[in-house]
Design a protein that fits this description.
Elements lengths: L14 E11 L2 E12 L3 E5 L6 H7 L8 E6 L2 E2 L4 H5 L2 E4 L11 H12 L3 H14 L15 H13 L5 E5 L7 H14 L5 E5 L3 H7 L2 E6 L2 E7 H8 L3 E8 L5 H6 L7 E8 L2 E7 L2 H13 L4 E6 L1 H13 L3
Parallel strand pairs: 3-8, 3-9, 6-7, 7-8
Antiparallel strand pairs: 1-2, 1-4, 4-5, 9-10, 11-13, 11-14, 12-13
The chain binds adenosine-5'-triphosphate (ATP) and magnesium ion (MG).
Length: 325
């Protein structure tokens, strides 16, 4: 009889699943009966306060630590009981050691590829592709010791890409980087979203999650609070008030804001952040958000960007976390 672990993975649709996944340290429960199923190529943010259990959960998905009970499955395969098959197409960035400073990315990645068992005929090609994906091709033969932290992190991401993964697990990939490094790594993560990959990424930076991720899973005290698309989560938990930020290609007449936009149905306030940026608070969900966009477009004011404001996710986060303290 076939057990759950033996189910053949459907490689076209990457999946990551926790089934009552639990980790206890003595009497302390770090991850508590976590049930979560992420399916398909998308980027999911993993949010929660310090000590919530994010790293612990991510480590159980890579068999770095063993669950006390429950299962972590990748593409339907149990990570703990069938590690090699489960992790064949998985890349992780969790406590990644840095490449030795006197090596070049090519040398360092060659060592890592050999350790990981990438077939020797493919190694050079995989290194070139992985380094190109993190936009570091021109640095491939320079010593890592001279790289900025952001560049080193990009090389770490390249090392994760050597096995051409369909599932990527990233633990706070931008933490500790300066703003430019953060933005570089963020752009890389965004570009990794293609190629049928599932990315599960922990972060404390809510604007980053709003920008990069399609969905969000929130955890506190080891328990899952919510898992849904960002727009559903914000529509559901932001107490009826939503916010969008609008970017315009040309300067906006302030009178139009006060006399017109602020008076649209359901709009609570329309605030001009500067001559080309507008923040609109409104009551209601996605239908209202959609109508508002068409109203703005029909004003012919040069709308070039329209998105849920990051602070909206922050409101939801703080509301949900507050209840569990
Ligand atoms: N080896 C261990 N022994 C005992 N407790 C541990 C161990 N590892 C983690 N913990 C505890 O488990 C809880 C969850 O830790 P974890 O590192 O998963 O949190 P996190 O959500 O990743 O937090 P952060 O945002 O700070 O990275 C914490 O309270 C932590 O102290
Ligand atoms: Mg952590």
């Amino acid at each position: 009889m076939l057990g759950r672990d033996d189910v053949m993975p459907d490689t076209d649709v990457p999946t990551l699943e926790a089934v009552r996944l639990t980790k206890k340290y003595g009497s302390f429960t770090a991850v508590s009966e976590l049930n979560l199923k992420i399916e398909g190529s998308k980027c999911v943010g993993f949010l929660g306060p310090n000590g919530a259990g994010k790293t612990t959960a991510l480590k159980m998905f890579t068999d770095l630590i063993r669950p006390s009970s429950g299962q972590a499955l990748i593409n339907g395969i149990n990570v703990h009981t069938n590690k090699k098959a489960a992790l064949a197409k998985v890349a992780t960035l969790i406590e990644t050691p840095e490449i030795y400073p006197s090596l070049t990315p090519r040398e360092g990645l060659r060592m890592i590829a050999e350790i990981r068992g990438v077939p020797s005929k493919e190694i050079e090609k995989r290194i070139d592709e992985a380094v190109a994906e993190v936009h570091m091709s021109e640095w491939i033969d320079k010593r890592v010791g001279r790289f900025s932290k952001g560049m080193k992190q990009r090389i770490c991401i390249a090392s994760a890409l050597l096995s051409d993964p369909c599932v990527l697990l990233l633990d706070e990939p931008t933490t500790g980087l300066d703003p430019r490094g953060m933005s570089e790594v963020r752009d890389i993560v965004k570009s990794l979203k293609g190629k049928k990959r599932l990315i599960f990424m922990s972060s404390h930076i809510l604007s980053e999650v709003s920008e990069i991720c399609d969905e969000v899973a929130m955890i506190d005290h080891g328990k899952l609070l919510v898992y849904d698309t960002i727009s559903n989560v914000t529509a559901k938990f932001s107490q009826g008030t939503n916010m969008v930020e609008v970017v315009l290609s040309r300067s906006l007449d302030p009178q139009l804001v006060t006399q017109n936009i602020a008076k649209f149905t359901n709009v609570i306030s329309a605030e001009q952040l500067n001559d080309k940026n507008l923040r609109i608070k409104f009551n209601g969900g996605l239908e209202v958000q959609e109508r508002l966009l068409s109203q703005l477009v029909s004003l012919n004011i040069g709308v070039i960007s329209y998105r849920a404001a990051s602070s909206e996710l922050e409101d939801v986060y703080l509301n949900l976390i507050k209840d569990t303290v």
